[in-house]
Amino acid sequence: MKHTIKNEFLTVSVVEKGAELHSILGSDGTEYLWQGDPKYWSDRALNIFPYVARLTEGKYSLDGQLHEMAIHGLAPYADFRPVSNDGQVMVLEMTDNAETWAQYPRHFAFRIIYALKGNVLETTYEVENRDDRPMYFGLGGHPGFNVPLVPGKRFEDYRLRFAEPCQPRHVGFNEACFVTGDHKPFRLENDRDLNLDHHLFDDDAIVLDSMARQVTLETDGDPHRITVTFPQMRYLGLWHWPRTDAPYICIEPWCSLPSRAGQIAVFEEQEDLIALPAGQVYRNTWTIQVN
Length: 291
Fold this sequence. Notes:
The protein is mainly β. It has one helix at residues 98-103; strands at 2-6, 10-15, 21-26, 45-48, 59-62, 65-68, 81-85, 89-95, 108-117, 120-129, 135-137, 140-146, 158-162, 169-170, 184-185, 193-195, 206-209, 214-219, 226-229, 235-239, 248-254, 265-266, 274-276, 281-290. It has a 9-stranded antiparallel β-sheet with strand order 7-8-9-10-24-19-18-13-16, with no helix packed on it. Strands 4-12-21-20-17-14-15 form a 7-stranded antiparallel β-sheet, with no helix packed on it.
């Protein structure tokens, strides 16, 4: 089932499966969100919880026991329950059940709050630890955006511009998309700009750290642009389906990284996972601003 919030600037639609965004429509009719063409990528804007991307052998250790979990955790495959919707703010929630427990043995509630504030869509992830033990988890966003945003432009006409000069590091991955620890400097034009080219993604995603935590998708000669701001996220993934001419880009704020190459992740020891004590609530807010 689809749910909608709306104001004078934006109409935003969300489905219950994965609490996934399905449309970010501007008042002039511009669709900013990728619409899920299966030729390239059938999803649109995954929500990631409780683990970002891949686990080595699809497994991890928690409480001294091995468990299996799919790519990007539980949230993309779960049916979220609508909690409230006042027309401009909606709340959806997933909670643990027998199916989630088999993969992630913790009692929890994971809520996603979408709120419109002018031309900004605010997304808040809220994790409530309902267990008597600490929770260890990662989370992040995986929205795809149409490129180009208007007729007459090409993918290569666009750039990603960081809000301030920075010298990011390119997180090292092997061919199977696991972390190697071999991080290298990632060059930006004028320490701010990344000009888009399909070949950027020939080796899959680009994942950065040590970058400014706001980035804008834009092109010369057109006012339409998208700004993603993620103050609580340490990493930024950039991606489209490798070795294609896919007309979109995913701008993915992450709080943690996938498993290390050749190592089964131990959740209690992975330093970039969030450790949430029993009975506590964690919140993380990031935004999409459109013009």
